Amino acid sequence: MLLQVRAGFGQTVPVTTFLLPVEGLTITCPWEIGRVQLYPGAQLRSLLGDNAQAMLGHKVIGDVTTKFVEELEQGTVARVEATDIDAALDLLTLATDLLRIFLKRGAQFRTTMFGLPGQMYRSQIRYVTDGAEAGPGIRNRGEAVGVTFDDARHAAWLSSPTFTTLASLVGRDYPLDEGPRRALLGVQLLSQAVLEHRPAFKMLNLVIALESMLLERDPGTQTLRFLRRATYFTCGRAIDSLCGRDRPPCQFLALNPAVKADRGQLDWMRQLAEMGPPWRCGERASYSRWYELRSAVAHGDDDPVTSEEASQAEYWIFMWTLEPVLQWLVKHPVKPLEALDEALAALGPVPDWQKPVPNPVTYNPDD
Ligand SMILES: [Zn+2]
Q1: Among 71, 195, 219, 243, which residue's CB has the most CB atoms within a 10 Å radius?
Q2: Alpha-helical segments (H) within the chain
């Protein structure tokens, strides 16, 4: 409504201020996510200032404006300055992706949800059954709507350097460094995974999110690189004893898939792991299983992904993998994956019993 002018690269671009709805979200204080500002709905009229009276009392647009303002007041209002409405909605979508990831990180249980209108899957299906038990039925599927971000949650947000750094990038109009770029891609794919209810596509989004953060485009040894890097962030985190940092590294982290001799040993490790403890690494096995399922979907196989398996992967990744990976990408904005490989190379010697890796063909667990 209000026309402003913003300078960039020597040009002036007309910018409009849009006030947009976020459904199902209640906030108790304003939040800033880059160029998107969120306000409690009750503050809408004061945000509009003199324009409020002029619009609400207008003899042509007054009734419609009143209806829209009353709708916006029900939830959270986003204030976005952008060149057009679609640009404003794109910025708000990215901001809500970030908030959704923040909500889900470490979430122990199923959470309720919020989003832009139409973004959340909410479906009430009314149907009739035929036959002996003929009659009407109702099935509700999808999200339970309604999330409150109170002052304590806002304080937690402000005290997270990872999330506040990523938030500051929303609406940046110059190219991002590799680390933040990968982090924001991962955030959007993970948000999509949360909103996706079909198990196979949830799994696909979850794993591709990790790939977008942890893998460069280089088809050789892709799986091995993925498993090594993902496991680096979580192996032992659940028991507060990180592999290779709080204790000596296992061969799964120590062996480098870029080295041919190491690849041979990694294959032995894989075979030994299939025989069970002590060579089995539960986490590496999970990442490997999820990567398998992702590849099956991506390449047209019909391995079924159960909803239990998809929600287990979702739970684990949000509980343990997400935050350390985002943190790494924010802390290593330039060449984050090279830095990761250097950190892996510097983990120190593996325990004596793991070297050399025994040949699985002649391996006897009782020796
Ligand atoms: Zn380990």
Answers
A1: 243
A2: 44-48, 50-56, 62-72, 85-104, 151-158, 161-168, 178-195, 199-214, 222-234, 251-254, 260-274, 282-298, 307-316, 322-331, 336-345
